[in-house]
Amino acid sequence: MSGKPPLLRSGEPSPPKPSQKRSIEKRARLLEAGRRIFGQKGYEAASIEEIAGRAGTAAGAFYQYFASKRQFLIVLMNELLEKLASLNLRPSGAGGIYEFLAAVFRADMEYWGVVRAWQEAALSDPGLARMERRIEAWTDARVLGVFQLLAQQPGVRNDYDLPAFAHMMNRHFWSLLARGPRLSRAEMDREIRLAADVIYHYLFR
């Protein structure tokens, strides 16, 4: 169920990754600034100048590490996919669905703004839309794997369409991640509890 995530490429020449500590740190600050500003403003309203300013560097320095804002977004999405690939997707059982989902969403918290920006950008960028379909297929398979593990628990129903349900919940999870920057902690917790209830009642009642 681990599976390698799809590798997303921008098609633009990539500046070489820095090897010196100072440059590595500057690139990391730019990525951190991008995660925050995309969460606050989305993709179109976020500017390279603002991202660079938040990172404490000049706008021209941005292009030492990234060819464009689009490539920058793809780098951030690749980071998120690698993080998703490293998650332990083995729920403790039917009674632990909420705790499992809460742990997954906490792990992704710093990338909620990236998802928001990605979904916005994919609406007008056919290349990103194609990548989004590849991502969805990969995460569909991972969600299905989780549900298949849960379906091995005692008391499970036998009248469900697990692939269709996994696809539906996967789309809901991505929507929830994109809305994450605009939700309070209490609102996000409520959304996660609702999702856990839906999963439990679909599989077990």
Topology:
Blueprint: H1 21-41, H2 48-54, H3 59-62, H4 69-86, H5 97-107, H6 112-122, H7 126-150, H8 162-179, H9 185-204
Helix pairs in contact: 1-2, 1-6, 4-6, 5-9, 6-7, 6-8, 7-8
Question: Could you provide a short overview of the structure?
Answer:
With 205 residues, this protein is mainly α. The protein has helices at residues 21-41, 48-54, 59-62, 69-86, 97-107, 112-122, 126-150, 162-179, 185-204.
What can you tell me about this protein's structure?
- The chain has helices at residues 21-41, 48-54, 59-62, 69-86, 97-107, 112-122, 126-150, 162-179, 185-204.
- With 205 residues, the chain is mostly helical.
- It has a single domain (1-205), classed as Tetracycline Repressor, domain 2, CATH 1.10.357.
- The longest helix is centred in the last third of the chain and has 25 residues, at 126-150.
- The two termini are 26 Å apart.
- The mean pLDDT is 92.
**The CATH fourth-level homologous superfamily:** Tetracycline Repressor, domain 2
CATH architecture: Orthogonal Bundle
From the 3D structure, determine the CATH topology.
Answer: Tetracycline Repressor, domain 2
Percentage of residues in strands? under 5%
Number of strands: 0
The computed structural class is: mainly alpha
Which H/E pattern describes the elements?
A: HHHHHHHHH
Q: How far apart, in Å, are the first and last alpha carbons? A: 26 Å
Global outline = elongated
**What percent of the residues sit in helical stretches (DSSP H or I)?**
55-70%
Oligomer: single chain
Radius of gyration: 19 Å
Q: Report the sheet with the most strands, covering strand number, pairing sense and barrel closure.
A: none
By CATH reckoning, the class would read Mainly Alpha
User: How many DSSP helices?
Assistant: 9
Q: Look at the structure and give the mean pLDDT.
A: 92
